[in-house]
Each structure stands twice: as structure tokens, then as C-alpha cells.
Amino acid sequence: MHKRILLLVSAVSLTLLSFAQLKSPEAFLGYKIGTRYTPHWRVVSYYQYVAQTMPANVKLVQYGETNEHRPLYTAFISSAENISNLENIRTNNLRLANLAKDKAMPSENAPAIVWLSYNVHGNETSSSEAGLLTVFALADPNNAQSKEWLKNTVVIMDPCVNPDGRDRYVNWFNSVVGTQYNPRLDSREHREPWPGGRSNHYNFDLNRDWAWQTQIESQQRIKVYNQWMPQVHVDFHEQSINSPYYFAPAAQPYHDAITKWQRDFQVTIGKNHAKYFDKNNWLYFTKEVFDLFYPSYGDTYPIYNGAIGMTYEQGGGGSSGLGADTDEGDTLTLYDRAMHHFTTSLSTVEISSLNAASLLKEYRKFFNDAVTAANSEYKAYVIKNKPEDKERISALLTLLDKNAIQYTTGSGAGRGYSYHTGKEESFTVGQGDIVISAAQPRSTMVRLLFEPQSRLVDSATYDITAWSMPYAYGLTAFASKAAITGGGAVSKDSVKNSSTDSYGYVIPWVGVSSARAVGQLMNAGIKMRFSESPFEVSGKSFARGAVIILKKGNEKFGSALWAEVAKICDQNNVTMSAVSTGFVDKGYDFGSGKVHPMKAVKVAMLTGDGVSSLGAGEVWHFFEKELRYPVTLINAADIARAKWSDIDVLIMPDGNYRFLSDKASAEQFVLWVRNGGRVVAMESAAGQLSRQEWSVIAVKKDDKDTSGKKDPYSALKLFNDRDRDGIENTTPGSIFRVDVDSSHPLMYGYPNYYYTLKMDDVLYEFTKDGAGWNAGVLKKDNQLAGFVGYKLKKKLKDGLLFATQNLGRGSVTYLTDDVLFRNFWENGKLMFCNAVFMVGQ
Ligand SMILES: [Zn+2]
Fold first, then answer.
1. Ligand 1 geometric centre to CA of 208 (Å)
2. What pTM was estimated for this model as a whole?
3. Which member of 499, 529, 615, 618 has the greatest number of CB atoms within 10 A?
4. What are 159-217's pLDDT values in tens digits?
5. Which element (helix H / strand E) includes 311?
6. pLDDT in tens, 414-451
7. Dist. CA 237 → ligand 1 center (Å)
């Protein structure tokens, strides 16, 4: 009997004990955090274990999947009471942000929501390791301190934002490290191979993609983010090995949309971290390097959406491995790095919990100001609905939807800033024009995306200084200081083409959707032509580049032809217009030599060592995910082995191409061009080709200083100003109006201008003698937005940016500015399509 009671007692206490015990990452994984790398699947399995063991306090939700099919998760950690009430907390929070559909009054007496994002840059590995320590500390039932914080705080953890990048790094590192790590920086384990683990599968930097959401990781994550809208968001990073830890407050420039509270609270958080770092004798810095301006980062995007958004930076990164020598003679270990991020993780939760009431009060105020547009100089933005802009407007509306920005139709008239002329002008708001009011919950994001010129307190920024949407999307727009009456919902009709029998059909060439449809028609084996001149037929007008499909040449499809064409056009939301004759009323007949057959092109792109991974990624992603047209990636080092006869178009992304200095390879390349090959050279690749003896473009030399009297002391500089010196000669990314030859195939679908994002100080001479074509040039006074150093500003005029050259039977297209920048520069995509499909046909 006694024995039985004893057994019972021990069974009960065992149950209690197991209920009250949560294995640490070390106990679960079998090694101390920081002594080995934890691959992503084991990171996930620990979170799953924690959620299964502590179901009342931890909820794990899969929100998506990466390109390489790794799962993406968020873990919700809080008190049992909050976790059981999670959905109410979420809807109440949306009410606080004026984002809920219902009109119920929100409660400010609600938990603060803190979102911690780990490992957005895949090779900045310590943060996912730190995340494991953090989720344990928060969920551990024996940790009384965290239990206190979680009474009024919900923590959302993203264990790894970029698992494809992280595993790329970790798998590589594990394959090259010995039994013991080697801290010498010249050892191979500190030399990550191309393209490195920083980016995602398509070589995109996910920490530049928050607003644009071109990548599936961002698309899936921000959908969840927008359902939660936290009060605090932290993005964990690493920087160079020798840098001490960086945390808030951030550096100048701050965008002036950032509120006083948002600035002040960064200081509050920073001081809390400093307390722990001081206690441990750790080194750190604040207020330098990491600014708050470009709206697509993991710190700024949350800030412009009402949160305290921050970046924390640990020294380390892709060259530091498990342990690395520092300049100070220390060894920086993965363990150290993880401990620092772990410390700021908990300190962030602590200080947010201590200030939960004021966080919620100020958050509420942010969104109450938003719906009255209290902090917006411009009260509304108007996008003119021109038929030729249809595809780019539709792309813009998709971007607005991704960011939960509201828009309507409108009516009336007004005065406002014309993005095209840079002047105040009168305008009308007609049927179908889009009105984006600044008075809405996302008011600050609206301002950030649309204001003509963002103001910089300090020009030494980390990123581009201009991105205004009317320029990036190439739209006619006005910014109005007066509110504009909103109309109804904007209708987004999907195209349904009829496929009745006809002499032919015409597809306008106006954007990525047109190009995608044409590419798919090519792949289906359908023969097409394009007209180099505008034409009118069957009562309809078509612009240059319009693609014509005739029964002639497509006999093999028989009566199924038009149904097939209509299916592809419907899928791409592209309208096809029936024409009953090839005898045009204006322009050239379909049988004219000015109407060219369009050949399906076999496209290859150079990649690998020497090529900019980001530049290559932009092209790769564009082909696969937007154009959905096949592209063969060839390592630049293997170019001698390329099957040239199977390449029609060769794309050279931004990069340094060593084969050009190898005589045999360079000759083989030129021979291929002369025999009909078509090259598309981008950014520095264009610069490299310009130095080949056969090239017809050349870098523009500096104009002579015509100021007459030179300052004899201009060479004397203050030591203290050394960080600023040189800035007068640079642009970190600003917008210029380019004058365009819209009759040139590279510019089909464009008006006589193009807005370019200029990120360097290079300009080319106009090409002469008819050997090349000046398709896009910079004239005088064409800068529209962003920072350009005053010395460079004087030089950036009267030069060439976009050109083509005929070489034998082939051609070279020079795109010296990045027309696919981060895949959000929508206006440049058609130029790229022209270079691939139109130039040299
Ligand atoms: Zn980073």
C-alpha cells in the first residue's frame, strides 16, 4: 500500500517536473550554442519542441516557404492568458492602428507587441543561434523574470528570415572547417565562395526588399507583419569583424517623418542595452553608420508603419566562422556573437514591457495623426490613367495592395507639383485617375513612397536617396497640398479576349505583361512580327513595337491558333486587337520591310566569380519570376566552353569580366557578335566593353574647370571632416530625366523621356558617325530627386547613358544605369525587354 502511494506520488511529481522543465538548446541539440553551427532544420526542430512542450505559452505558425522549400515560421510567446487571447489582442492592435474593419473602440490597456527578426542576411549567422537562447529564456517556466515581462508583452520571433542563405553559408562552412576552427583570416574557412550566403536564393538582399516585396520571403512575411503591426521591431545583423556591437539610437540622416517619440524611445532602448554591455565590459557604439532613410529596410519600414524599428549589428558576418582573429588580437567566436544578440534580444523585451503603456499610447497617436494626414505636407497624390501606362499602373496598384495602402478614383481639378517638370501646375482628375490620399492609416508610408523629394538632414547615407514611385514606375503624377475628393473603388478588370477568326491580331508593346505574353507566344512556337513605326488599321492606332500575329507563318496551328493566342494573352491580362487586313491606313503595311519578323531568342547570362551577385540576381529573378522566359546561366569562367551557336542574346550583368583580357576568349566573343550575336551589357559591364577597341562608346572626360580663378587653398582639408570628403563628387542614388529617342527599338513603349536611377558618377560621350545609336542621353538640368554632390551635379550633363552599336551582323546594347534595380524600378523593365527581344532583330 505504502509502496503504491509512493509510486503514485513520484508519478505525479514526475509529471509536474516534466511540465515544469524545458530543455535548453544545449540539452536539446547536444552541444553548447556557438560551438557548432545549427542548420536550419535543427533550428526549426527546437522551436517545434518548445511549442509542443509549452503549448500554453508558445504558438508556432508556419507562414510560408522559401524558393528552396525551407519552411518559414513565426513563434508567438507570451503569458498563457495572452496566448489564449491572441486573436483578440491582434484585432485590438489593428483597431489601435485604425486598420480594423470594424469600428469597435480599441483598448490602450493591451500587451505591447515586440517582433524579433533573426538572420535576414544568411551569412550573419549568430542571430539565429541567439534566437534559440532567446526562445528558451522566454519560454522557460523557471525564468521568473521573463514570465514577468510576458504578462504585458507578446513576443513574435522569426527564427530565420532567410534560411536558404543561412544554410548556403552553414553547409559550405561545415564542409571546409577542420576538427578545430582556424581563426586565421587567410584560411579558406573565412573566404566564402560566390555568391555568398548573405542573399536569398535569387541573390536578393532581403533587407532592401521590405517595401517592394519582390521576393517570396518578403511577400509572405509582410503579409503576417501587416496582420500584427508590432510596436517594436528588431532586425538582427552582423557587420565587419572588427566593429564593436551597434544598437539604437541610429545615425543621421533620419527621415523627418520619424516622430520625436520614435527618436526618443530608441535612446531609452539603447540605454537599457548599454546597462548590460557595461556590466559585461563589452564594447559598443550608437548614433553612427546606420541611418534611417531608405524605406525598405527592416528598421525603417517598421518605423514608417508606426513601430520602433531598429537594426542591431554584431561584428562577424560571413568571414568570421566559428572563430576569427580580430585586429585587437582577440578571437571573436560564434559564442560571443550569439551572446551579444541574446542580450539585446532580452533587453528589448524587458524595456518594451517596462514601457508597454506609453508604447501603446504613442502608437495610437501615430495612427490617429495618420488618418488626419497631420504630418503630411502633401495631402494627396494623383496618378493620371494614360492607356499606355496601363501595365505600370496595375503594377503600382499591386505594390500599394502589398503595403495595405488605400487608393480610390477621384474627380475635380487642382494644382500641384508635377513630377515631370518639377513645377507647380494645374491638373484635372479625370475618370480612371488614381487618387492616393495622405489621410489614411499608412499615411507615413504614402509620404515615403510618393513625396517628390525626401529631405536629408545629412547626405552621407547608406543607400539611395530617391525612389519616388511616379519616377520608379514612369507615371504622370501630381502631388497636391490640398486634399482631393476621393471617389469609388478602382476597378481592376481582368482581360478576356475573344478569339474569333481574323486576318491577324495586334498586341501593344507597353510593359512587362506584354513582353511576358510575347515570350510565351514565342515559346509556343507562334511566329510574330513587330512594327518599327506607329500604324493605324481597322480603325485602331498602335504605337512602335506593337506585335503582329498573322495566320501567315502559323499555318501549323490551323484553326486552334487564335484560341491559343487568346489563352496566353488572357493569362497575362493583355488585350489583343483584331485586324481585318494588312493594308494599313497609316504607317507601313504588314508585309513591309519596316515590319520585322521576331525571332524566338535563346538567352544566356554570365554569372559566377567576378559578376555582381546582386546584378546577376536581378536578371535571373526577372527572367524566372516576371518574364517567365528561359535563360541559361553560364559561369563567366567557363565562357570558353560555351556553346555559342546556341546563344542568340548574351546578358552581361554588372561585373568584372576577366575573359575580356584573355585574347583567345575575347576574340571568340567578338566573332560570335560579328556573326549575329547580341550582347546586353549592364552597368560596369558596359564600362568594360567601352574600353574594347571595337566599341563606339567612351567614358566622358571631366569638363575643364571654367570657373577661372581657382581657390589656392582648396586642397587643404580638415582632418575632422574626413568622413565627408569626397561626398561632393558622389551620388548614392538619385533620379534624372533622360531624353529618349523613342523611335529606337531600345525605347519602344517609352515616351521621349525615361526616369533613371543614377548610382555612379560615370557618363559616356555621345556616339558619332552612325556606328552607334544614342538611345538615351542626359542633357542639362535634368536632375529630379535625391542627393547629388555639388561638384558631380555640374558634371552630370550632356552625356550618354543608353546606347546600341551594330557590330558585323550582331549588336551590343549598353545599359549603363541599372534598369532592373532591386526589381522594383518598374519603369526600366521594358527597356530591358527591348534589349532582349527587339534590338538587333
Ligand atoms: Zn546584415
1. 10
2. 0.94
3. 618
4. 999 999 999 999 999 999 999 999 999 999 999 999 999 999 999 999 999 999 999 99
5. strand 308-315
6. 999 999 999 999 999 998 899 999 999 999 999 999 99
7. 4
**Ligand 1 mean position to 146 CA, how many Å?**
27
115: amino acid identity, one letter:
W
> What pLDDT digit, counting tens, does each position of 477-520 carry?
999 999 998 889 998 888 999 999 999 999 999 999 999 999 99
What is the 593 CA–ligand 1 centroid distance (Å)?
Answer: 54
Mean pLDDT of 780-793: 86
**SS (HEC) of 388-404:** HHHHHHHHHHHHHHHCC
Q: How far is the CA of 794 from the centre of ligand 1 (A)?
A: 35
Residue with cell 522559401: 66
d(CA 439, CA 525): 50
- Residue 73's closest CA among 136, 131, 133? 131
Residue ranges of the alpha helices (H) in 140-213? 144-149, 163-176
- How do 323-325 and 245-246 pair as beta strands? unpaired
- 109-138 pLDDT, tens digit per residue, is 999 999 999 999 999 999 999 999 999 999
- Any idea which residue has 523593365 for its cell? 829
Conformational region of residue 703, where left means phi above 0, alpha means psi within -120 to 50, and beta covers everything else: beta
- Taking the centre of ligand 1 as the mean of its atom positions, its distance from the CA of residue 41, in whole angstroms, is 21
Q: In this structure, are residues 683 and 814 in contact, taking their beta carbons and an 8 Å threshold? A: no
Distance from Cα 780 to the centre of ligand 1, integer Å: 38
How many angstroms separate the alpha carbon of residue 352 from the centre of ligand 1?
23
| Ligand 1 centroid – CA 810 distance (Å) | 42
Separation of CA 239 and ligand 1 centre (Å):
7
Ligand 1 mean position, distance from CA 235 (Å) = 8
